[in-house]
Design a protein that fits this description.
The protein is α/β, with parallel strands linked by helices. The protein contains 15 helices and 16 strands. It has two domains: about 100 residues, Urease, subunit C, domain 1 (Roll); about 300 residues, TIM Barrel (Alpha-Beta Barrel), CATH 3.20.20.140. Helix content is about 35%, strand content about 20%. Helix 5 links the parallel strand 8 and strand 9.
């Protein structure tokens, strides 16, 4: 398939021994024809090349060209913060105390570290949970796409409207970040988690997001500590609140598990993305699916905190829409979604290579509301990355991108190279 290009526009022909468009089978000795940031044609080199013989050509040879990876959940502002694995309680307290008084330029600098690491890992789009909003500048300035989910916290239901109003006022002060790609960075809201945001705050955020056309994401069912806190108000997370805030004003435990807790307040219907979902069961999955909530799994972050990981295989069987996220560099060794996919396979040995690639690309794009990325097709955005497999001979296969020694050699958004490995 091909679309007719404007005659005056420059054409680029990108070639690789294997092209994986995601919405179709892998293409041996494949080609991608692009112009003005859009895909014009994708297919076998012998078919695509005659469509524009004068195109500028880039041949990656023994490599695999795939859609740009979509990291559906991260915290770019934490990229300059490193922590050792340990109890979640200690991690939260030390992190908040360190960052509590950061000026805006430190949030921006930390986010820029994360953006650079993301592009080097083939990530072209992110779902970023932001405290300051500064990550929007970093994402837009690097030519990436993303949703910046502005985080709101507060357990006192009496203060929900006040907390949300303050966050929205800050959001409204931000300019529209055009960056290198128009409309590439969008706003969203993120009540942090059921153990840190009241049900009133969830409801208020959902209503405001619906009015503005923004998506909503939240951490949900991440740990047993979260379950304990919702059921009786005690445990490690109660100690976290007292250490940081001195009190638990207005908080009353619902006695329910995390998904049922949000459902109690009709808060699931306004939710686009639930992150982690380690502590969920078949009943929860039914509620999430019924409300159209997608789930973002972060297996390496679960390992960092020694949390029992979600039952990904049964989630897939239950029909949940799953995508992948790295979480932050404060709780994960890298921002590589391919590393995250490798970790997921350790928990879900039956998942296919095609399903893994889907979770890394189209599923994440759909979860964040980006229709033009996640697959390589005529009319779509020219966002892709090129992965060099381990040294070897013979035909390449889709699964080679998930080999431990595979690495990204080039990342492209909107038809422009944003990252290139030094030896590429």
């Amino acid at each position: 398939m091909a679309t007719e290009p404007p005659r005056t526009q420059k054409m680029e022909l990108w070639l690789a021994d294997l092209v994986c468009p995601v919405d179709g089978p892998p293409i041996r000795r494949g080609a991608l024809l692009t112009s003005s940031g859009r895909v014009l044609a994708v297919g076998e080199e012998a078919f695509v090349r005659p469509a524009e013989p004068a195109a500028e050509e880039r041949d990656f040879g023994r490599a695999i060209l795939i859609p740009g990876l979509v990291n559906a959940h991260t915290h770019l502002e934490l990229s300059g913060v490193k922590r050792k694995p340990g109890p979640m309680e200690e991690w939260i307290v030390s992190l908040v105390r360190e960052m509590r008084d950061w000026p805006a330029h430190l949030f921006l600098a930390s986010a820029q570290i994360g953006v650079a690491a993301s592009l080097a890992a083939g990530v072209t789009c992110v779902g970023d949970v932001s405290t300051s909003g500064e990550s929007a500048t970093a994402i837009a300035g690097a030519g990436m796409r993303g949703v910046v989910f502005h985080e709101v916290l507060g357990l006192d239901p009496a203060r929900a409207d006040e907390i949300l109003a303050a966050k929205l006022e800050a959001c409204d002060l931000f300019p529209e970040y055009k960056g290198l790609i128009p409309n590439a960075v969008r706003h969203g809201l993120s009540p942090h988690a059921p153990y840190s945001a009241s049900l009133a705050l969830y409801r208020a955020a959902a209503e405001e997001a619906r009015a503005r056309g923004w998506p909503v994401a939240t951490h949900l069912g991440e740990s047993m500590e979260e379950v304990e806190f919702l059921q009786d108000g005690g445990g490690a997370l109660a100690r976290v609140h007292r250490a940081l805030n001195g009190a638990l004003d207005g908080y009353k435990p619902s006695g329910l598990r995390p998904v049922a807790h949000l459902d109690l307040a009709d808060a699931l219907g306004g939710l686009a993305l639930a992150v982690h979902a380690n502590q969920t069961n078949a009943e929860d999955w039914t509620l999430l699916r019924k409300n159209g909530v997608r789930v973002c799994l972060c297996p390496r972050s679960a390992g960092f905190f020694d949390h029992p990981f979600a039952d990904a295989a049964r989630m897939r069987e239950a029909g949940l829409d799953l995508c992948l996220g790295t979480d932050s560099l404060a709780s994960s060794p890298s921002l590589s979604l391919l590393d995250e996919a490798r970790a997921l396979r350790e928990h879900d040995a039956e998942i296919t290579d095609a399903e893994l690639l889907e979770m890394c690309t189209r599923a994440g794009a759909e979860a964040l509301g980006f229709e033009e990325i996640g697959v390589l097709k005529p009319g779509g955005a020219a966002d892709f990355c090129v992965v060099c497999p381990p040294r070897g001979v013979g035909d390449l296969h889709l699964g080679d991108v998930f080999e431990a020694d595979a690495f990204v050699v080039c990342t492209v958004t909107n038809g422009e190279v944003r990252y290139e490995a030094p030896s590429a």
